[in-house]
Every structure is written in structure tokens, then in C-alpha cells.
Design a protein that fits this description.
759 residues; alpha+beta; six-stranded mixed β-sheet; four-stranded antiparallel β-sheet; 17 strands; 14% strand; globular
């Protein structure tokens, strides 16, 4: 009984020392909840009256953004108050006189610690709960909160308090480990941001030194290892599937929930244990425990040296290994002097304790050698086939610009929290492609690993780390045109391992391997998002021709017919077909939306002349099958070339103009939209490798006047240097091409058409 009364008395006495933190907590919660609710309620009312939103959406927004877990203002005060309350509550650890006073009391240190710890939680929790209740009842009185959702508001409030406790215990640990308030604040920063810093540094270093490195870090993944990210993961896992769905999905939040509790408990337990070992003389010193000094110093030395090296590497003009080493040396020296000065609050101390300096230097040197010489064989690593479940290949050889909705790349397809954004197909491929043909996949990946290893071996001689060229000169003098292949091995143990390879399909073995992969159903269903889409995902289709840009609303029945025809044509198209033809038109799959922030461009479909089923459907519905539709209406064409100086500065523009129908048709004969060419790219046997001939690379614009139209439009196209082009166009666009080379299929002479303006 005496113990309980003593604890209560100590708690009451401790509260008298918390007057300004209490006032700050009350003010912060008042503005972050009640004042915010008043402002948002007025906004919600206005938007409902104007018909810009619905009561359903308002209730969801109020639950998450005002009275619930995703109130940004609450999240900010969680960080701020946890730091301030922890440092203020344990301020006696930073002052020798207060420490002597507290330790002289006939009370155990652990009891004093528990009192301060509990009061630190109460200082935030009580004002938060009171303001939260008021906020919820404000929403309830206006119909923005339903009575049946009150338990969810209570549950979300408990989550906020749990997150605060985790932040708070981390800050308490920083206070116990240090003896100075400023150092304690820096310690909190280390606990919160060291993980993201290390993850970012690792990403940059791996991407710089290893040409085959492919980051598998998801969105916001660089911030893993931080209590901040753990809290956001917890909140995101708990929320509903839709943007405004009011829910509390505890079942899928068990892992972050348990981790949050573990960090809070571990922080509290470790701090409580250390407080019994902490000497009174630690007050006023930088670090309370000498054993932590070399550990922290070595960690900081390694991070600072590698960070300084990569910084100097990229800010310099040479990007050489020498500049990297110079940056490492600077980082090592600066951190050693700074940390030792902070530890002892004396600059003379920086000329001591070189043992930890040499340990940190040695570790940093070993890591640098591992990066430079690939000691651990990162570039040449290949998995054992019997340990691989399946493989996904995202190649840039063909169809490198397919699109699909963002929700098709999410773990939960219904988890569309923001907008109906479209995205490229890379993540779709990694999630859906399940290749089992390991024999042919290995032929590509092994060649890619060999190229990566060879490139790494000579990198330090030319300071070319992490740089793999798309076009290189081989030993036989011929140009190798590499294609980028991103590989993801889905291992049987659940791991997913990625690499990026540059492979030249210069042998029949590699070509046949890729051909077999492309022709497989596994590849196509993993490559083309449109093959597995539902007809109701899009409402209309869009297309662009010489006549203009058009959109067509088609019903669900016709959409289903279109998709069935397209799927059949895609599945019947072989790799050999791609080498013999270019896409004739690109069709976009669009979604009607009233939200100006939504993207309605979700899918795209490349149509080829050989797509008989799709072609029949388009013709039957009056939709063009070729982007040159309207060519017969062109009355004037202009080709423009922008010249640049040797330094890359803008020079001047030159133009070729013609109203001759035959000349215009000759130019159009060798012009194709860039996106259409990208569908097949360099597999087209006639124009393979054109994009790498930089010596005869021209930026040109192709403008036309269309009869009966005053509209000015732009198309991004390519112009090929082929026999049949008007000589004036050749002279203008390809001035460096020899006359006897014009029209040769293997010379690669080509120009880019930046902009096709139609009027």
C-alpha cells in the first residue's frame, strides 16, 4: 500500500515539473484536431452544397484526415511532442546537480524512471483523448460521423497513442544513452533517420559500382528501418481498401502492429535497465556509457567516408576512383575530429583515440574494395535453377512502353487510395510474369552476367562504374547493339532477386532463346496488361492519325468484342512477325472521370497490319487502322532541322517545304510515330540499330497543313534515311551521309522527327 501511495505521490509531484509540456500538448492537440475540424467542416459543407463531393466521401475523409489515423497534423505533433516531452522529463540526467539530488532520494532509480516515463505518456494521451472525443462529436453533430463507426474512431485513437509511445520510448532511450540535451536530440535523429540514410547510401553505391544492379526497393522503401515508416506502414495496413472506405483492417496489420509494440517495449526495457547502470558522473557528458563511444564512432566513420566518397564522385567533373577516395579521406578526417570533439567537448581530444579511427577506416576500405573489384561476385551471380520458382523478364527490346492502371501493380487491387493513375508495365511484369523455361532464360541471363562482369573488370581504368552502353564496339570491330533486360527471379523460398543486364542478341543461340520466350503464353500474359483486363475497366478508346486525335465511346458489348479480337491477334503474333512489320496505329484505353486529378489513360493497344481480327473490328466500327489516315488531305509539308554548335548550344533552324503531293508522300513513306516504332524497336530487321548511329542523328520537325482544318497539332515521329527520300530532305537532315550510302539498309542513317505539327 505504501508503495502504491508513494508511486502516486511521485507521479503527482512529477506532474508539477511538466507544466509547459502539458500546456504545449493541450495547445498542439487543440489546433491539430478541434481547430482543424472546424476548418474542414466548413470546407466539406461547401463542397457538398456545390455538388463536388458526397456525404459518403466526406465521412471517409473526416475519419482518416481529421479524427483518425492519417491526420497529418497529429503525426507531426507525435514526432515533436515525443522528443520534447522525453527530453524534458529526463532532463535531470543532463544536469549533475539534479542527478545528485534525484539519486540521493530514498527511492529506487527504476521507480523514478517509471514515474517519469508514465507521466510522459499521460502528458500527450490525456489531451489527445479529450480533443479527439470533442472532434468526433463535432463530426457526429453534423452527420459526418455515424454512430456505428464510433468504435473505429476509438480504435484509431488507440493506434495513435501506441505510435506516440513507440516514438517516445525511442527518444527516452536516446536521453538515457547521452548526458547532454543537444546530444540526446541528435541521438533521436540517429534513431529515426539512420536507417533511411544507410538504405539510400547503399542504393547509390550499388547503382554506381554495379552495372547489373537493379533496385527492388518499393515506393518509399528507402525509408525502411525507421520508426516513422513503421508507423505509416501500420496506418496504411489498417485503413480500408478504397480511398474513402471507413474500416479498421487489423488482420493485415498484425506484423507492423507487433513490431510497433516490440520497439516500444524494447526501448522501455533497455532504458530501464541502463538507468540502473548509469553513473551520476555521466550528467553533462556527451555519452553516458563509454562502451558506446567507439561503436557509434566507427559506424559514423563508415557512413561518412562512403557518403563523402560518393558525393565527391558525383560533384566532380571526372567521376574517377581518385575523387571517390579523396572524398572518403575527407569524410573520415572530418567525422573523427567532430565526434571526438563532441565526446570530450575539447578540440584537443581529436588527436586521441585513433584506434577506432583505424577500425572505421579499415571497414570502409574493405567495403570500397568489395565495390571496386566485386569481391563477392555480385555481377556474375546466377541462382541455382532448382531453387527458382519462376522468372519475370522486363525487356526493352519490344513493347517497352505498354501501360496499365496503377491498381494493377498493387498487392491489393482494390487499394486505390489516391487517383486512377496509369503506370508503365514494369511492375505489372514483375508481379505477373511466371516463366518456367529456365533453359532459355539462363542463356540470356548468363550472357548478361558475363557482360556485366567484363564491364566491371575494366571500369576502374576508364572511371565507368555502373555505366553499360547500349552500343559498344566489339573486338571484331562491329557494333554491338545491346538491349536492356530486367530480370526478377522468384525463388522458392519467397525471395525476389532482380538484376539489370545489357545483352546483344548477336548469336543465333541468344536470338532463338529470346524468340522461344516471347512466343510462350507465360511471357505474353505477363507482358501485356490488356490480355487480362476486364471490359468494364475502360469506357472508350482514343487514337491519333494525320487527321487528328479522336475518342470513341463504345459499349461494353463492343469493348468485349474488341478485347477478344485483340487477344487472339496478340497470341497468334510470333517474334518472327515482329521482325517484318511495324505497328500501324496505337489505340488508348480510356476511363471516363470527373476528377481533374485522375488520369483516364489506362491501357494502350498496338495494332499491326497482320492483326486481322482487330482490323476487321476497327473497320466495322469506322475506326482507322493506320496512323496515316488523312494523308490524302495534306496540302503542304515542312521539314525543319535544329542545328547545334560543337558545345551543344542552340544554333539555328533550317527548313524544307513542299506542296508537291509526290514529295510529301515520299517523306511520309519513311516516317513513323516514335511510339509505334518503339513497339518493335530494333528487332525490325530492316532498321535494326538505327538509334545508335549518333554521327548521322538529326532532330527534325515535320509540319503539315491539312485541307479543311485550321488545327495545329504535334506528333513525335522518326524519319528514316532511305532511298526514295527527296534529295533536298536528305541534304537537310543527313548532311554527313555519303551519297553512295544513302538507302543502304545497314548504314543506320536516320533522323528523329521531334514534332509533327498538323494544321
Amino acid at each position: 500500500m505504501t508503495s502504491k501511495r508513494l508511486f502516486a505521490d511521485l507521479l503527482k509531484e512529477n506532474s508539477k515539473r511538466r507544466l509547459w509540456p502539458i500546456a504545449l500538448s493541450i495547445s498542439a492537440n487543440f489546433f491539430a484536431q478541434i481547430v482543424l475540424a472546424v476548418l474542414m467542416i466548413g470546407r466539406y459543407k461547401e463542397r457538398i452544397i456545390d455538388g463536388r463531393t458526397t456525404i459518403y466521401d466526406v465521412r471517409g475523409a473526416f475519419y482518416y484526415e481529421v479524427g483518425g489515423m492519417q491526420n497529418v497534423a497529429i503525426f507531426l505533433i507525435l514526432l515533436g511532442l515525443s522528443l520534447l516531452i522525453a527530453l524534458q522529463g529526463y532532463s535531470y540526467l543532463f544536469d549533475s546537480r539534479q542527478t545528485d539530488l534525484y539519486y540521493s532520494l530514498p527511492v529506487k532509480r527504476t521507480k523514478l524512471f517509471d514515474v517519469a516515463n508514465l507521466m510522459g505518456i499521460i502528458v500527450f494521451a490525456v489531451p489527445y483523448i479529450i480533443c479527439h472525443i470533442i472532434t468526433v462529436f463535432m463530426g457526429l453533430s453534423r452527420g459526418y460521423v455515424e454512430a456505428k463507426t464510433l468504435p473505429l474512431y476509438a480504435a484509431s485513437a488507440l493506434i495513435v497513442i501506441l505510435v506516440y509511445i513507440m516514438f517516445y520510448e525511442v527518444c527516452v532511450l536516446a536521453a538515457v544513452l547521452t548526458g547532454h540535451v543537444v546530444i540526446a536530440a541528435l541521438g533521436c535523429g540517429v534513431f529515426f533517420f539512420l536507417g533511411p540514410v544507410v538504405a539510400t547510401l547503399k542504393e547509390v553505391l550499388m547503382g554506381t559500382f554495379f552495372g547489373s544492379y537493379a533496385s527492388d526497393v518499393p515506393r518509399s522503401g528507402l525509408f525502411k528501418g525507421s520508426p516513422i515508416t513503421l508507423s505509416t506502414d501500420l496506418v496504411n495496413a489498417l485503413r480500408g481498401d478504397g480511398q474513402y472506405e471507413i474500416a479498421f483492417r487489423f488482420g493485415r496489420a498484425i506484423v507492423p502492429f507487433i513490431l510497433t509494440i516490440l520497439i516500444a517495449v524494447a526501448g522501455y526495457g533497455l532504458s530501464r535497465f541502463l538507468i540502473t547502470k548509469r553513473h551520476a558522473e555521466a550528467a553533462g557528458k556527451a555519452m553516458a556509457f563509454d562502451i558506446t563511444k567507439p561503436v557509434i564512432k566507427v559506424a559514423m566513420l563508415v557512413i561518412a567516408s562512403l557518403g563523402g566518397g560518393i558525393t565527391m564522385f558525383y560533384i566532380g567533373d571526372t567521376r574517377s576512383l581518385g575523387s571517390f577516395i579523396f572524398g572518403m579521406v575527407c569524410g573520415l578526417i572530418v567525422v573523427h575530429f567532430v565526434i571526438e570533439t563532441i565526446y570530450e567537448f575539447d578540440f584537443k581530444a581529436s588527436f586521441k583515440h585513433f584506434g577506432s579511427f583505424f577500425v572505421g577506416t579499415g571497414i570502409a576500405a574493405v567495403l570500397l574494395l568489395a565495390l571496386v573489384f566485386d569481391i563477392f561476385g555480385y555481377e556474375s551471380w546466377q541462382p541455382m535453377p532448382d531453387k527458382v520458382e519462376s522468372v519475370a523478364i522486363d525487356d526493352y527490346l519490344v513493347f517497352a512502353n505498354l501501360h496499365c492502371p496503377l491498381y494493377r501493380t498493387m498487392d491489393n487491387p482494390e487499394d486505390n487510395l489516391y487517383y486512377d493513375w496509369g503506370t508503365s508495365d514494369s511492375e505489372f511484369i514483375f508481379r505477373n510474369m511466371k516463366l518456367k523455361d529456365m533453359e532459355n532464360v539462363e542463356k540470356l541471363t548468363k550472357q548478361g552476367a558475363i557482360n556485366a562482369k567484363n564491364n566491371h573488370r575494366v571500369a576502374y581504368r576508364g572511371d565507368r562504374y555502373g555505366q553499360s552502353e547500349l552500343a559498344v564496339i566489339r573486338e571484331d570491330g562491329k557494333i554491338a547493339y545491346n538491349t536492356i533486360i530486367n530480370v526478377q527471379w522468384n525463388m522458392k523460398n519467397g525471395k525476389k532477386i532482380r538484376r539489370t543486364y545489357y545483352v546483344d542478341l548477336d548469336t543465333d543461340e541468344l536470338v532463338n532463346a529470346y524468340k522461344a520466350i516471347y512466343n510462350s503464353d507465360e511471357y505474353k500474359y505477363g507482358k501485356f496488361p490488356a490480355l487480362t483486363m476486364e471490359p468494364n475497366e475502360i469506357d472508350k478508346i482514343g487514337y491519333e492519325t494525320l487527321s487528328g486525335y479522336f475518342e470513341e465511346n463504345i459499349g461494353s458489348a463492343k469493348m468485349k468484342e474488341f478485347l477478344e479480337a485483340y487477344r487472339e491477334d496478340v497470341m497468334n503474333q510470333t517474334f518472327d512477325d515482329l521482325t517484318k512489320e511495324l505497328a500501324s496505329i496505337e489505340i488508348s484505353g480510356l476511363k471516363n472521370t470527373d476528377n481533374p486529378y485522375d488520369s483516364n489513360y489506362l491501357y494502350n493497344f498496338f495494332i499491326f497490319p497482320s492483326f486481322t481480327k482487330t482490323g476487321e473490328f476497327l473497320k466495322k466500327n469506322g475506326i482507322p487502322t493506320d496512323w496515316k489516315d488523312g494523308q490524302d488531305k495534306i496540302v503542304k509539308a515542312t521539314v525543319g532541322v535544329t542545328t547545334y554548335t560543337e558545345d551543344g548550344e542552340y544554333g539555328h533552324d533550317e527548313y524544307w517545304t513542299s506542296e508537291n503531293t509526290n514529295e510529301i508522300n515520299d517523306v511520309l513513306k519513311y516516317t513513323v510515330p516514335e511510339s509505334l516504332y518503339g513497339a518493335t524497336g530494333d528487332v525490325n530487321e530492316k532498321w535494326r540499330g538505327f538509334t545508335y548511329d549518333r554521327e548521322k542523328f538529326a532532330n527534325i520537325s515535320f509540319s503539315t497543313d491539312i485541307e479543311g482544318s485550321n488545327e495545329t497539332r504535334s506528333l513525335s515521329t522518326l524519319l528514316f534515311n532511305e532511298k526514295g527520300l527527296p534529295q533536298a530532305v536528305v541534304d537537310l537532315c543527313f548532311p554527313d551521309a555519303a551519297e553512295d550510302e544513302v538507302g543502304q539498309a545497314d548504314n543506320g542513317n536516320v533522323g528523329w522527327t521531334d514534332c509533327v505539327s498538323l494544321r
